[in-house]
Request: fold
Amino acid sequence: MTLAEMKQLYDENIMGTYGRAEVAFVRGRGCTLVDSEGNEWLDCLAGIAVCGLGHSHPAVVQAVADQAERLMHTSNLYYIPTQAEAAAELTSTCELDKVFFGNSGAEAIEASIKLARKWGKQSKSGAYKIVAAEASFHGRTLCSLTATGQPKYQEAFKPLVPGFVHVPFGDIGAMEQAIDDETVAVLLEPIQGESGVRIPPDGYLAEVRALCDRHSLVMILDEIQTGLGRTGKWFAHQHEDIVPDVMAVSKALGAGFPIGACMARGEFADVLVPGDHASTFGGNHLGCAAVTAFLRTMKSDRVVENAQVMGNYAVERLTDLAAERPGAVKEIRAKGLMIAMELTDGVARQVLASLHGRRVLANAIGDHILRILPPLIIGPTEIERFVEALSQSLDEAGATGAP
Ligand SMILES: Cc1ncc(COP(=O)(O)O)c(C=O)c1O
Reply:
């Protein structure tokens, strides 16, 4: 099928919810994607922080193929061996105790919110309000959209779910002020991803942890984008040596297989009981085979360490590149391989188009921010290739920072 034929079928049959680049990928391996015309691309977006092991990692392919041949789905009415294994692998990466599997990030957030609300009902006099952050992103279902602190995504769908308050991200005083007797939880991304890799001040998460302890609040972290090695630790909260009560995980979890998880610790791990929450597909045989293969490969190949080392290297090289163009780059924000370059000129979309012209994938957020989320297995050669393409693209797009 040609791209033109594909586009025709899209126009006729697919709802127009996405603006898509003029390319369709048909194969991939590592950091390389191959388009429908046979061209090779360097992927520095990893399916938006999903393909941590790169594309079609042999260990995951084998596990999924073997499992597909054996058994794909039976439902949660029965025990699922791969679910047991996947959950044990996942809980061994952090200090949370138990897992509920769903199919996406938004579902992991929904489960987290329901868990907190039920805990509020039974243990905190019916408290139900959740304090979240402005400019956050938690998903597109009605409740995760309500939690998302971006009115532009919400306007068309009001009225939203009651009980959410938004405060400036990184401002502990504002958070404390927003808490009242009806507050049950705080919900935050450790680093805001979708709004441009916005990193809070050092110590902020630890302060939020202390605040939650003082006010008996459930601390919910959305580690859907930051989790599973992206920031150079298994989870971003581990940079501050704290543990949330509840955590939403997804994206990288299935190495491309759609799966998400709500994790909880201590008393919170036993709040949801039969009848409270469920998902037909959640944690099915196939998805959990992918999770286990992904996590075991991450561990055996020390991929989290690679994300840390390569993240530092990428930032070094991007800093060099910025220094060659004084004034053009306002800021580089990064933790591990979660990287944003904020441009002084509003040419981020032009830079991205120029990168695409060089067959390199990244992401533009608005007019000023380039987001770079490569596979966590990326090496120095690929980083060099990216930096060279970016250098040419910044020039081509006229990102000079000149007044
Ligand atoms: C931090 C965060 N939370 C939640 C979501 C929603 O995940 P999904 O699109 O899988 O529902 C995303 C997706 O980008 C995200 O980055």
Summary: The longest helix spans residues 303-323.
